[in-house]
Specification:
The protein is mainly α and about 160 residues long. It has helices at about 1-5, 10-30, 45-65, 70-95, 95-120, 135-155. Helices cover about 80% and strands about 0% of the residues. The chain is elongated, with a radius of gyration of 20 Å.
C-alpha cells in the first residue's frame, strides 16, 4: 500500500484490485465453497466460476491497456495475468482440468513478473519506506511545484 503514499496510482490500483481478487479466490476454493472440486458435478457452478474469471479478464484487459504507456514490467505482468484469466475462464466454463492447470501456470509466471516489477519499483531511489517519506514526496511533488513556480516567474 506504499504506492498510495507515493502517488503511484497505477500500482496502488493493481495492488488493491488483485489483492481482493486473490482473497476471494482463496475463499471460494479453499475456505468456503470448494468450487473446484464440484466443477464436474454441477454445470451451474462451472459456468458461474467461468463467468467470474471472464469478468476479471475484462477488468485486466482495461488495466493492461492503461499500463502500456507506464512500464514494460507492469505491462508484461498484466499481459500474463490476462492470458491466465482467459485460460481459467475457458477451463472452468467447460470443466477442463488441464486448462485450469495451464491457467495456474500462466498465473505463476505472472507472479514472477510481478515480483520482478515490485523489486524494480520499490528499489528506486526515494521510493522505499526505508528512505523516508520526505524524499518520496519531494520526488513526486517537488518537480511539479518548481515547474509551476518557474512558469509563474516567466510571466
Amino acid at each position: 500500500m506504499w504506492a498510495f503514499a507515493a502517488n503511484d496510482t497505477v500500482h496502488a490500483t493493481i495492488f488493491t484490485l488483485y489483492g481482493s481478487l486473490f482473497g476471494s479466490v482463496g475463499y471460494l476454493s479453499v475456505l468456503g465453497f470448494n468450487v473446484y472440486n464440484t466443477l464436474e458435478q454441477d454445470k451451474t457452478v462451472s459456468h458461474a466460476a467461468g463467468t467470474f474469471w471472464l469478468a476479471w479478464m475484462l477488468i485486466t484487459l482495461v488495466i493492461m491497456l492503461g499500463t502500456v504507456r507506464y512500464s514494460a514490467g507492469t505491462t508484461a505482468f498484466m499481459a500474463l495475468l490476462f492470458i491466465s484469466f482467459v485460460v481459467l475462464a475457458g477451463g472452468t466454463w467447460t470443466g477442463g482440468k488441464s486448462a485450469i492447470k495451464a491457467g495456474g501456470w500462466f498465473s505463476f509466471f505472472a507472479s514472477l513478473a510481478c515480483i520482478y516489477n515490485t523489486f524494480a519499483v520499490v528499489h528506486k531511489v526515494g521510493y522505499s519506506p526505508l528512505s523516508g517519506m520526505r524524499s518520496v514526496t519531494e520526488r513526486f511533488h517537488r518537480k511539479t511545484i518548481r515547474d509551476e513556480d518557474s512558469a509563474a516567474a516567466a510571466v
